[in-house]
Specification:
Structural class of chain A: alpha/beta
Order of helices and strands of chain A: HEEHHEHEHHHEEEHEHEHEEEEEEEE
Largest interface: A-B, 29 and 30 residues
Distance between the termini of chain B: 63 Å
Number of strands of chain A: 17
CATH topology of the largest domain in chain A: Rossmann fold
Helix content of chain A: 25-40%
CATH architecture of chain B: Beta Barrel
Number of domains of chain B: 1
Structural class of chain B: mainly beta
Strand content of chain A: 15-25%
Largest sheet of chain A: 6 strands, mixed
Distance between the termini of chain A: 35 Å
CATH superfamily of the largest domain in chain A: von Willebrand factor, type A domain
Largest sheet of chain B: 8 strands, antiparallel, barrel
Number of strands of chain B: 9
Strand content of chain B: over 45%
CATH architecture of the largest domain in chain A: 3-Layer(aba) Sandwich
Radius of gyration of chain A: 26 Å
CATH class of the largest domain in chain A: Alpha Beta
Shape of chain A: globular
Number of helices of chain A: 10
Oligomer: heterodimer
């Protein structure tokens, strides 16, 4: 007995200290992707020309606000290099590597194709090209529409304070800008989905599948809608979705969504799971009619409550943004896009709110730090209209996504150093060297 | 005549017998020597105060630097009551830094030493002197220590908590006497503790093996 005790004592003295090994999900500065692929899905129905004109008028200002004028930075010698680096660190938001694409809600006509190609950061004529595509190909100007005129306008001049017939004749070609009107059923979400299907080399099978629309009280028979997407569409939007980039879908519409895979639902779980198949971070920004507290469209028009609500749902679920396309009642005029673009600019530089973990953690062992400071776990303060928990400031763990999500004031800045430590439930996912 | 003769004989014999007795009494044979004949640095009834610096180098993830104060009340030359109080800080080892790098993304839930207090006894059964290079004699003792106390440690992972752990601390050390009142003291000690770890909600065994080197001052050196 004494020998056994002695042996145990010796073994314990000779043994190494044993420690549990926490996994650290490193979200260090260099791991952040500052690439943002922004796809505008613009409603090209005839009620939208005023909105599109406002969008065009404000786009150049928007680009200026998020683009650093790199050509202004001196590059002579070490001092200039150091100054540029300091500028980069302190003003990282100006270094968002963005690119834009534009398509319309008319999925029958465009199948999500990016009109006019890509609009990349640094292109000297980015704004003018984007505006030209928006007004010439993605805006419905009815032929009987009377636009403002400016006989003094000469081709090549800036767009000015309003979109005139002379301007459109110059940038689009005389009269060619008229009559580019889309389908009466706006399918913003389906268009965005088709755009993504066209932008990857191996689209998910669902892109090619016919859609079965189940009959209901108004349409008694089931209908099999043939797929719009075929092999010919693969790669049409090549380069629009870069590896590792954040995808932002900006829906601009004065009506609700009528996408074919949904049947008057106010939510869009079907599309949510379809977008997940791309394995990318997709964020929705909806510039659509506002809903009042009862969930009804606040400004009179043709927008359906449920159609608008599903845009709101996707924006909410992807931590995006919702902006009212109209002034508040009773005015209800198209809103100044400058404000909406300002919010979009904020979204571009504050994308990361969810941080996926490499292994399943023991939730009790999670430690979350931003820039070295511990962030408290957020408390559930209620539930939203969709039944999801609403959190106060802090972080929460999502079992479904196996991710840590930040809320409220705790959302880290774009250049923040986020660190998540946890004890994995099933041990180390890889062999350690020691 | 017979009496005179006896007295003369006695005078002749007596010096011889006396010389033989002196030789026998003055010789100590090697096998008879069992102790240091002259214990130059007695400790009995003296107090000892010391300043020490050390290191805990044997943990794979944390290397601790330690500073400590010691106090001994020597009850006899062999036995003393010992009290230690120390503080320190642990630094991540290269292994830890490699593990927490993006390549591995692992943070060991290791603890670093912050401080501790121990009390117990020291038993110094050995007092010896050593000839160094044939020219200098160094007196030293060697002792065994048994102490108990508490150790305060902090998780290396920020926010991982602190632990105040009951500690059992066996040790072995030696005093190299520099003078009657000062000694250089070397000690190897192993702090064995039961540590409550907050994040994992477990009680774990941990040991801090450490080596200290210090200088101590003994009272009553002038006597």
């Amino acid at each position: 007995m004494r020998w056994t005790a002695g042996l145990l004592a010796l073994v314990s003295l000779a043994s190494c200290n044993r420690y549990d090994l926490f996994l650290t999900s490193g979200f260090e500065q260099e791991s952040f992707s500052n690439k943002a692929d922004v796809v505008f899905v613009v409603d090209n129905s005839d009620s939208m020309y005023e909105v599109s004109a406002s969008l065009a008028l404000n786009f150049a200002t928007f680009i200026q606000s998020i683009e650093t004028q790199e050509e202004e930075l001196a590059t002579d010698g070490l001092a200039d290099a150091a100054a540029n680096y300091v500028d980069y660190v302190q003003n990282r938001s100006s270094f968002v590597d963005f690119q834009f694409g534009i398509t319309t809600t008319d999925v029958e006509a465009e199948v999500g194709e990016a009109l006019g190609g890509l609009y990349k950061r640094g292109d000297p004529d980015l704004s003018s090209r984007f505006v030209r595509t928006l007004l010439c190909e993605a805006t419905c100007f009815r032929e009987d529409l009377q636009l403002p005129t400016d006989p003094t306008y000469e081709c090549g001049q800036a767009i000015g304070d309003e979109v005139t017939e002379e301007y459109l004749d110059c940038v689009c070609g005389a009269g060619t800008w008229q009559g580019n009107c889309g389908n009466a059923v706006e399918e913003g979400i389906e268009s965005a989905y088709m755009a993504m299907c066209s932008g990857v080399s191996n689209p998910p099978v669902a892109c090619f599948e016919d859609i079965l629309q189940i009959g209901d009280a108004t349409n008694e028979e089931d209908v099999l809608v043939p797929s719009l997407f075929s092999d010919a569409n693969v790669g049409v939007n090549d380069g629009l979705f870069r590896p590792g980039a954040n995808t932002i879908i900006v829906i601009v519409s004065d009506e609700g969504d009528g996408s074919r895979r949904l049947d008057r639902e106010s939510t869009a779980e079907v599309y949510e799971s379809l977008f997940e198949q791309f394995g990318r971070r997709v964020t929705f920004a909806a510039i659509v009619p506002g809903l009042d507290e009862d969930g009804t469209v606040s400004c009179p028009g043709q927008a359906t409550d449920w159609g608008v609500a599903r845009y709101n749902y996707l924006a909410y679920r992807t931590n995006g943004l919702v902006e009212d396309i109209f002034e508040p009642p009773p005015n209800c005029e198209p809103r100044d896009f400058g404000i909406a673009f300002e919010a979009l600019g904020e979204l571009l530089v504050n994308l990361l709110t969810t941080f996926p973990l490499a292994s399943v953690p023991d939730p009790d062992t999670l430690i979350v730090r931003v820039d070295g400071n511990d962030v408290p776990q957020a408390e559930i303060t209620g539930s939203d209209v969709y039944g999801f928990d609403v959190y106060g400031d802090g972080w929460s763990y999502s079992i479904a996504d196996n991710a840590v999500e930040f809320h409220g004031a705790a959302i880290p800045g774009y250049d923040a150093d986020v660190q998540v430590l946890y004890l994995p439930i099933e041990g180390m996912p890889r062999e350690l060297p020691f | 005549m017979r009496t005179l003769t006896a007295a003369l004989v006695a005078l002749l014999i007596a010096p011889v017998a006396s010389a033989q007795e002196t030789i026998d009494l003055g010789v100590i044979r090697d096998e008879d020597i069992t102790v240091v004949q002259k214990l130059l640095y007695p400790k009995a009834k003296r107090t000892e105060f010391g300043l020490h610096a050390g290191v805990m180098p044997f943990d794979a993830y944390v290397t601790n630097a330690v500073a400590q104060l010691s106090f001994n009340q020597h009850l006899s030359d062999q036995l003393s009551i010992s009290v230690l109080a120390g503080g320190g800080y642990g630094f991540k080892t290269a292994v830890y830094r490699k593990l927490e790098s993006p390549a591995y993304g692992v943070a060991p839930y290791a603890y670093r030493y912050l401080g501790g207090a121990l009390g117990g006894i020291e038993w110094a059964p050995i007092y010896a002197k050593m000839n160094v290079n044939g020219s200098r004699i160094i007196h030293f003792d060697t002792y065994l220590a048994a102490r108990v106390g508490v150790t305060l440690e902090q998780a290396v992972i920020s926010g991982g908590g602190t632990a105040l752990a009951p500690t059992l601390s066996p040790g072995i050390g030696s005093r190299l006497f520099l003078s009657r009142s000062t000694a250089l003291r070397v000690e190897f000690r192993d702090d064995l503790m039961l540590q409550r770890r907050a994040l994992t909600n477990t009680t774990d065994f941990k040991q801090n093996a450490n080596v200290t080197l210090g200088i101590t001052f003994l009272s009553g050196g002038d006597e």
